[in-house]
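sanity check this:
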Amino acid sequence: MNISTDNINYLKITYRDRWNTQHIIKATLKDVTQHDIKACVKTEEKLFIDCPQEVELSIVTDEGLYKTKTTLKYTEFVDPYLFFIMDRNDDLSFKQEREYFRVKYKDGVVINFKVEDEIKRIVCKTVDISAKGVKVELPYNYKIPQDVNLKLYVKNNEMLVNAKLIRNNVEDDIPTASFQFVNIKEQDMDFISKFCLQKQIEDKRKNM
């Protein structure tokens, strides 16, 4: 690989199960040889994966996100880990400077903040979301302080997040506010990240 393995944070593997349904799984890089890449994921459920098959490999590094297509040669289960053994492919393309891309998504969000020792609460809707932040539609052009608490709802999952206001804007006569997550549980960030990736796949299918 033409990037340092020391800079790799984790991998994402896009594969198809035996019913031809596409899935994305987050994995840890275990080894790189002259011919193979070995990754593993901790799983409590059986994954029905036919091999060999072409997969998309996303490599998340400190510098950004790299992608390539390769062959998943076989899998190996050593309880509770599933190992993915793939062909090494050094033909990597740099996709973006950040992993956390945004997708358009509408759902409920509650903004809580303090004004002169009084807790204010605004109920509104999300516009788009990523694992690092969210943009919301405001019911009116309210002046929101920089530090807020958000109660997010993503696919019926409730998440409590500390966030920082990045900007206010008006889009099509609708006031909006963009927030960066400051403190979010790792499992919530992973859930949002997987949701965004899956929604990108679904949106691409609809546009085909």
Summary: The domain at 5-96 is CATH 2.30.110.10 (Pnp Oxidase; Chain A). Residues 186-207 form the longest helix (22 residues).
